[in-house]
Design a protein that fits this description.
about 200 residues, mainly alpha, Heme Oxygenase, Chain A, 9 helices, about 70% helix, about 0% strand
Length: about 200
């Protein structure tokens, strides 16, 4: 990589700007921190997304690259949050990522790991619903070692991997797909919850 070229993590931030913005708008439109019922739907989407990525967080080849990857997964925290709120564990939704290439998988993980930075703001909102890092909002909690440090360690490894042009395309594809998938899961969580409510 030439010195005047941008880092891979910076490029991923740039190419995912539009889907990231679309997701932010969708989250705000659903107002997850207005009521506990709305938050429960948002939490269901978070759980589904993390559950779908669990296989990536525990993939031996990816763990070889990022040693603490299994500990970074938040599926169990999200499940505990659902239990805290007596919210049923949602059924899987068709279309989950399935056996992506290593580069594509890293694109998905880039989005999942990056969302921990935004979670710092979300957990402050969750406090108004009497939720915390130990009850109902565990998956938004501060990771071991801190948010910023964990993100820097992740992107440092990501930026230094020797990738072919095809792998660069695959990681881009994975990152964009991750944002689009969360949008699908968010819509599903709010739509299915609305359908379940008595007329």
């Amino acid at each position: 990589m030439s010195e005047d070229s941008i880092r891979r993590s910076q490029r991923l931030n740039q190419i995912t700007h539009a889907p990231h913005e679309k997701l932010d708008k969708a989250v705000k439109a659903n107002a997850p921190f207005e009521t506990l019922a709305s938050y429960s739907r948002f939490l269901a989407a978070q759980y589904l997304f993390q559950q779908e990525l669990k296989a990536l967080y525990t993939d031996p080849q990816l763990v070889d690259l990022i040693a603490d990857l299994p500990e970074r997964c938040r599926a169990e925290q999200a499940k505990a949050d659902l239990n805290d709120l007596d919210t049923p564990i949602p059924a899987p939704v068709a279309g989950a990522v399935d056996k992506p290439s290593q580069a594509e998988a890293l694109g998905w993980l880039f989005v999942s790991e990056g969302s921990k930075l935004g979670a710092a703001f979300l957990i402050k909102r969750a406090v108004s619903l009497n939720l915390s890092e130990t009850f109902g909002a565990r998956h938004l909690g501060e990771p071991v070692g801190g948010r910023a440090d964990g993100w820097k360690r992740f992107t440092r490894i990501l930026d230094e991997l020797p990738f072919s042009e095809e792998q660069e395309r695959q990681i881009d594809k994975g990152a964009i797909a991750a944002f689009e998938r969360f949008n699908v899961l968010l819509e599903h969580a709010y739509t299915s919850a609305a359908e379940a409510e008595p007329a």
